[in-house]
Amino acid sequence: MNTQLTDLMNRATENIEPVTADLLERSVAQGLRQRRRRTALLTASGAGAVLATAALIGGGIQLLSSPADAGVAAPLTKPSVKASTKTPPATVTPKETLATLRSLLLARGLTLSKPETWGGGDFAGAAYVVDDGKGAARVDVMVSGGGEGNPCVPVRSGCTTLADGSVLYASPVSPEYSDGRQKQYGVVSRYVTLYRADGRNINLTSYNGPAEKGQPHTRSHPILSAAELSDLAKSKSWKLPAVHTIKPSSKPSLKTK
């Protein structure tokens, strides 16, 4: 019985190698190879996993000091991140446009009321009801980054080319209604458009009543003349939006609203 048991144990362990330094080193090397394969699979999971795995491999190689595995420990170069020096495009808010309109009108000794703003982004608009003691009337402005047609293409009456290449168009006085309401309300207006070479433009409109429509006129003519509107449009105080890259439509849009 003892003889058979001893014989069985010998046969079961005859192919087992003793734990030697060589066997330990080969086991560790096999572990590193498996880790490298796992690293290759994890690469697609993100840069964070790659860096972490590379750090583990580098530590194991330094411990083993194995020349065959030295290439695995090559340091990963961290990409340099440069600060962006691109200047953000200029912009203007309706509130800023209202403030500019206010300062220009107050400089003419006019009384202002009922401030109004609209727009934002590619354009900004503002308006006041203005009174010079002879009847309250609306004055409004719109500044645009572009996208509108040049009012002086083709050249027509009311167009002037300025020294900087801009063109100034001053419209004739025209009624606000094309039906029987014109007789009821009697509102008329005139406007000017300063169209810059880069497509940006400033549009100012003057009325002879406190509103564009829906309220009766208070005076026979718009409160500001074409010359006065032109002076306002040429002021250096206006801030304009960034240049709008959309091409203008084939039909010019001349009115501010």
The amount of helix comes to: 25-40%
Largest sheet: 8 strands, antiparallel
The fraction of residues in strands falls at 15-25%
Shape: globular
List its traits:
single chain; 257 residues; alpha+beta; Jelly Rolls; 8-stranded antiparallel sheet; 6 helices; 8 strands; 20% strand; globular; disordered C terminus; transmembrane helix; transmembrane
Write the layout of secondary structure elements.
Blueprint: H1 2-13, H2 21-42, H3 47-64, H4 94-106, E1 111-119, E2 123-131, E3 136-144, E4 159-161, E5 167-170, E6 174-175, H5 181-185, E7 188-195, E8 201-207, H6 226-233
Antiparallel strand pairs: 1-2, 2-3, 3-8, 4-5, 5-7, 6-7, 7-8
Helix pairs in contact: 2-3
Keywords: Membrane, Transmembrane, Transmembrane helix
Transmembrane segments: 40-61
Briefly, what is this?
Helix content is 30%, strand content 20%. The chain is an alpha+beta fold and 257 residues long.
